[in-house]
Amino acid sequence: MHIGELSERTGASRRSIRYYEQQGLLEASRTQKGWREYEERAVNRVLNVRELLGAGLTAEDIRVVGPCLDMKTEQFLACHSGPDEMLAMYEQRLAVVEAKAAELQRHRAELVARIARLRADASDTEGFAELLRSGA
User: Fold this and answer.
1) What is the CATH number of domain 1-80?
2) Is 14 within 8 Å of 47 (Cβ atoms)?
3) Which of 25, 49, 53, 120 has the fewest C-beta atoms lying within 10 Å of its C-beta?
4) Which helix (H) or strand (E) holds 29?
């Protein structure tokens, strides 16, 4: 199948499909005219790649589960090709996500505090202007 059909069947844009190919997550053969041609198994592969990217994994992470990417989603979730590597990869990505979540929570708390302070000082016009100048 050509890239347009693969895009339609998976919901992935043509640009995304080319990116997956550049990242070594998807393979295509070329016609004599240079057009990409994909095998039927590329549908499952693209669907699985999209699912993993949506879960926050990177292309590098996804290469770890490469042997499982051609499977249907139900089978993919049960794939045990290199379970130690897969588990380590998932745990590392979870640690990154949790660190980002903690950082966002700190940013949120700081913004809430600044908003509360600005609202409290809003009635004091002179103090409010000084607060804005200080950046506190």
Assistant:
1) 1.10.1660.10
2) no
3) 120
4) strand 29-30
